Amino acid sequence: MVDLLLGLQWGDEGKGKIVDVLTKDYDVIARFQGGPNAGHTLEFDGIKHVLHTIPSGIFHENAINVVGNGVVIDPVIFKKELDNLGKFNIDFVKKLLISRKAHLILPTHRLLDAASEASKGKAKIGSTLKGIGPTYMDKTGRNGMRVGDLEFDNWKEKYRELANKHESMIDYYNVDIQYDLKDLETEFLEGVATLKKLKFIDSEQYIFDAMASGKKILAEGAQGSLLDIDFGTYPYVTSSNTTAAGACTGLGVSPNKIGRVLGIFKAYTTRVGSGPFPTELFDEDGETMGRVGNEFGATTGRPRRCGWLDLVALKYAVQINGVTELMMMKGDVLSGFKSLKVCTAYHYKGEEITHLPYNIEAENVSPVYKEMSGWDKDLTKMTTESEFPDALNAYIAFLEKELHVPIKIVSVGPDRKQTIHR
Ligand code: IMP
Fold this sequence. Notes:
Elements: E1 2-7, H1 15-22, E2 28-31, E3 40-44, E4 47-51, E5 64-67, E6 72-73, H2 75-84, H3 92-95, E7 96-99, E8 103-104, H4 107-120, H5 132-140, H6 155-173, H7 181-195, E9 199-201, H8 203-212, E10 217-220, H9 244-251, E11 258-266, E12 269-271, H10 284-292, E13 305-307, E14 309-310, H11 311-321, E15 325-329, E16 339-348, E17 351-353, E18 365-373, H12 390-403, E19 407-411, E20 419-421
Parallel strand pairs: 1-10, 1-11, 2-5, 2-10, 5-7, 6-8, 7-9, 11-15, 14-16, 15-19
Antiparallel strand pairs: 3-4, 12-13, 16-17, 16-18, 19-20
The structure holds inosinic acid.
């Protein structure tokens, strides 16, 4: 069976930390979608690590890490990630396997992303500008370059042809984008040379064989359910299926082989980039969450927008993914709030609704809140649930009752050790 670990909000829920905590229970950690738009932060022994493409099991001795077919890889960023991990003496050839069917992000995909965003003006998506959208467009348009192409002698011709096409598309956008493709290509070739040192595999077969031999596999999602290309807040989404079904197509796992579905959410909500966010706060409370929670994008450094927990959206994500257990992150950040709010319904076209409607822009939707008591105690040193303040227990109990799924982990700080199992 394959267990899934998914973000249930707009990304940045803390998936990297939880994969890292859980890896000891798994033989294989596999990424199934997204690319270097993700920034998975892991903290242990006082050091913070940010991974973009490499699965979060890389620091564990025995775990094999697979980059699946649903992922898009930028060889340039990939090389930087490997270089940054150089000091850890990790045997990448043994521990990191790359699907031949994963698509490659070319330098011109990044430029196209920038040109597309610039052409949108105020309506921009707020993309991380890593070339994700254009690469998935080439994939579904059946023009893309895949990792497996690098095993053929003519790959540079294929690259040239695609890059030429991209250059004329960049011209079409008619926006002011300055670039020197020669420099970018040099970097790209260096990245490809590094990528080619790793083992390329038919990852669906690898996963299939691993399952057959009883190995425990964890599929690691990137971004969050509300950024899903189909079910997220379109068009302010990423270009892949971030939800459970994405693990099936992004790894070649059949639906009846999915086991536990671990859903991760923050005790409040954040969003980076543009798009609707019904519970967003523009006051001191939002500012406090951002400051205490250190809410800055791990990939772009942009400040994250902050707001109260949105149970309508969270319930939707639990349903779409079939979540079997929940993990609540950053509980410690809510310490010190006199009272807390949880959005339990939306005012929508004169009605009160409890499902996510087609459009959740502020002009259509306003949140209905339940107010709950806050707590003062610092949670960050706690090691067992028995130390939790009553108000936190009440918060957790209310969420479990509303979501009908148990909260199995409460995270009270960024370090591996600050993880309380229930
Ligand atoms: P893109 O995937 O880089 O094109 O970005 C599309 C939208 O998804 C933007 O709003 C980004 O801020 C957001 N996004 C992409 N990756 C992440 C992530 O890992 N965490 C949070 N937001 C993300």
